[in-house]
Amino acid sequence: MAPVVRFAPSPTGFLHIGNARPALFNALFARRKGGRFWLRLDDTDTARSTAEFAAAIEEDLGWIGIVPDGMFRQSERLAIYDAAAERLRATGRLYPAYETAEELERRRRRQLGRGLPPVYDRAALKLTPEERAAFEAEGRRPHWRFRLDPGTVTWDDLVRGPCHVEADSLSDPVLIREDGSYLYTLPSVVDDAETGVTHVIRGEDHVTNTAVQIQIFSALGAPVPVFAHHNLLTTASGEGLSKRLGHLSLRGLRASGYEPMAVAALAVLTGSAEAVRPVADLDELAALVDLAHVSRAPAKFDEHELDGLNARVVHGLSYAAVADRLTALGVAPERAQAFWEVVRANLTRVSDAAEWWRVVQGPVTPVTGETPDLLTVARESLPPEPWDAGTWKQVTEAVRTATGLKGKALFLPLRLALTGLDHGPDLAGLLPLIGRERALARLKGEVA
């Protein structure tokens, strides 16, 4: 059966590189297995969820190549969650509890002080109807807890292998707050069951939720999906990623000129058995990603490594892939393809091409130094146009013959005069783009 997976962000901020990891793992798994990928917006936090962030999530996923097969919002499905909650109440698995946060904290401290695990003692199950009525009369409203069955909960994790949790070591989780709003757990299970999710692929920070969710699936009579809990991305120093690191948001990386396939490759190949490498598209990346080969250790995201990977991706981009961007940078369309073939190997980002177009078009302030004789010979050696890739060799051979200079002593002064820089693309390709008029002026020391 074709798998069904989902990515379920909360629209309370912009997606960052750490969010891209589970999104990509799910999308690539579906792509590799011929399955379906749902985007679910967990927007029941009405105070923090915004339409702006929801729209940004779709846009940012689209930028890295993820187009969901379907999308829905939890805020539109409250009646479905209410019905599921009623079913759990009817079977005695969901029960009201009236303790305040302060009372629960005092109880937790007493248990720790006695050397006991701070597990909820289910005192609410012992309340009489009269005691409940008294709490209600005080103005207390209950929160609702899910009653866990005792025993061992097991699952075979696609990343971590066989896993088990002793349910007796867990507190009955709160599924519904005093104000009637839902915490994450119940809506997530209900949505997965209702939309036929077969595989839940998510970060290892959700491992502790899994035993509880497995029991809720069973209590609702729904099939239990296969789980996979991958390692999390951290910063290079080991710090956890969060929405406050704006420069590592997908839109921040996009604005900085990174290629989506560089970001995608680094986001999922880091912390796996596969070497980080450039990929052309998500199909190529999907063929490399195997959940069974994801490491258990934290995956460190190094921004400097992204620079190197991005450069490798850019070096492999065809002119067709960048034509529109070059036009936007001001590169003349009639010269853009030749220009791209010359400069791309010197770029870290496509936007860096603007600097080399300035070198071609000018104005450039030449650096003439103390080589007037060399530059005079170079000027006199410039052939008439049209120029091609052989022109540079023709000029340098003439200068070498006349001056006896070679190597760096020959080439660096010419590069400084022609480009104003001591580095850059091969001048055999760049010189015909600069053209005879500009080259002659720069070799004279003129700004051109």
Question: SSE layout and pairings?
Answer:
Blueprint: E1 4-7, H1 17-33, E2 36-41, H2 51-63, E3 70-73, H3 78-90, E4 94-97, H4 101-113, H5 129-137, E5 143-146, E6 152-157, E7 161-166, E8 174-176, H6 185-194, E9 199-203, H7 207-219, E10 226-230, E11 233-235, H8 250-255, H9 260-269, H10 282-288, E12 299-301, H11 303-315, H12 319-328, H13 333-343, H14 353-361, H15 372-381, H16 391-403, H17 408-419, H18 427-434, H19 436-443
Parallel strand pairs: 1-2, 2-3, 9-10, 11-12
Antiparallel strand pairs: 4-5, 5-8, 6-7
Structure description:
It is a single chain. The chain has 19 helices and 12 strands. Helix 1 links the parallel strand 1 (4-7) and strand 2 (36-41). The mean pLDDT is 95. The protein is elongated. Helix 1 crosses helix 10 (282-288) and helix 17 (408-419) crosses helix 19 (436-443). Helices cover 46% and strands 12% of the residues. It is of the alpha/beta class. It has a 3-stranded parallel β-sheet. The longest helix has 17 residues, at 17-33.
List keywords for this structure.
single chain, 448 residues, alpha/beta, three-stranded parallel sheet, three-stranded antiparallel sheet, 19 helices
